Amino acid sequence: MSEYIIKPKLTPDEDGTVLTVTPESAGWSYVGFQVAKLTEGQTLTRESGEQELCIVLLSGLANVATMNQTWNNIGKRMSVFEKIPPYSVYVPSSDRVEITALTDVELAICAAPGKDTYPARLIAPGDVGVEIRGYGNLERQIHNILPEQKEADSLLVVEVFTPDGHWSSYPPHKHDRDALPDESLLEETYYFRVEPEQGFAIQRVYTDDRSVDETLAVNNGEVVLVPCGYHPVGAPPGYEVYYLNVMAGPTRTWKFRNDPDHDWLMKPS
Question: According to DSSP H, which parts of the chain are helical?
Fold first, then answer.
C-alpha cells in the first residue's frame, strides 16, 4: 500500500474516531485531520490547544458547543451525495468543542496552527460559496467552506463533487513552493467518499522531476496525503466521487501552478 493512503479503522475508537492524520504521522508541519462516526446520543470532545479547528458535519444532525457558544440541532444532509452545503463550526485555538449526535453523524475535524485571532462561529450552508468549475468532463461542483476570503488563521477547507467519468483537481496543479506571489506552500489532505461505495477513485501524485510519481486507487473512506507535487483526481464511469480538502501552510493563500504540459486545457476550443 502507498504511504500516501491512510485507511480508516474497521472499528471506531471509543469516542467514534475512525481515522487520524497528525503533522507528526504525515511527516509535515501544518495539517491535521480526523474523521469520526458517532451514533445517536454519543458525544465527542476536543481541546483545540494550539490549533484552530473546522468541524464539518459530513452527514447527520448534532448539537455543537464551544466554551462560549452553542448551536443546537445543526446539520441538514444525511449523505454527502445530497450535494447541499454542510454545516460547519470554526473553533479557535485555546478553546474546547463538544459534539453530541442527534442522529448517526459522520464528521470531519480539520486542524492547523491557530493564533486565537477569531472567535468561534457557525458556518451555515448559506455561508458556503457554491460554484461549478471546469467544462465538459472536467466539470465539478465546489463548496467553499473556509476559503481564504473567510476568517481563519491557517485553515483552508473545501469539498468537491466529481461526477462519474469526470476529472477534478485538473488540469494537474501543485502548491508546494513558498514562492509568492506565484505559488504558495500548502500541505493538503483529500478525504474520499465514493457512491456506490464499492467503487474507487484514481489520484495521481507526481513532481516535475518524477522523484514522486504515484498512481493511487483510493477506496471509500480513505485519505490521501499530498505533501508535494501535482495531484489530479479521476472518477471512473458509474461512480461519483466526493472529497473534502484541508490545506494549510506558512501563508494562508492558495496560489497554484498548473503542470505546463497540460495547461493548454485551461483554454478550451
Answer: 23-26
